[in-house]
């Protein structure tokens, strides 16, 4: 029997993000997509200051969202 491979990269943070902040990552993606900010670190700073996320969690969400915008898929 084969196990499901563990998530890698930014997605490896998603379960802990959902547990810690009580919102599905799809809601965070929607917030990031709705923001007028476009630069990676601007978005990370915004998530940290306005929504109380830690740096690693904010960075993972932004990296995944921006990769999706650039054809990396979500």
Structure description:
- This protein has 74 residues and is mainly alpha-helical.
- The chain has one domain.
- Helices cover 61% and strands 0% of the residues.
- The protein has 4 helices and no strands.
- It has helices spanning 14-21, 25-34, 40-51, 55-69.
Inertia-based shape? globular
User: Strand-residue fraction?
Assistant: under 5%
Biggest sheet details: none
> What's the helical proportion of residues?
55-70%
Short description:
The chain is an all-alpha fold. It has one domain (17-69). The chain has helices spanning 14-21, 25-34, 40-51, 55-69.
Defining traits:
74 residues; mainly alpha; 4 helices; 61% helix; globular
SSE layout and pairing:
Blueprint (H helix, E strand, L loop, with lengths): L13 H8 L3 H10 L5 H12 L3 H15 L5
Helix pairs in contact: 2-4, 3-4
């Amino acid at each position: 029997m084969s196990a499901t491979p563990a998530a890698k990269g930014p997605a490896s943070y998603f379960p802990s993000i959902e547990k810690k902040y009580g919102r599905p990552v799809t809601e965070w993606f929607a917030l990031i997509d709705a923001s007028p900010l476009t630069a990676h670190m601007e978005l990370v700073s915004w998530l940290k200051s306005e929504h109380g996320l830690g740096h690693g969690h904010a960075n993972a969400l932004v990296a995944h969202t921006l990769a999706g915008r650039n054809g990396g898929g979500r």
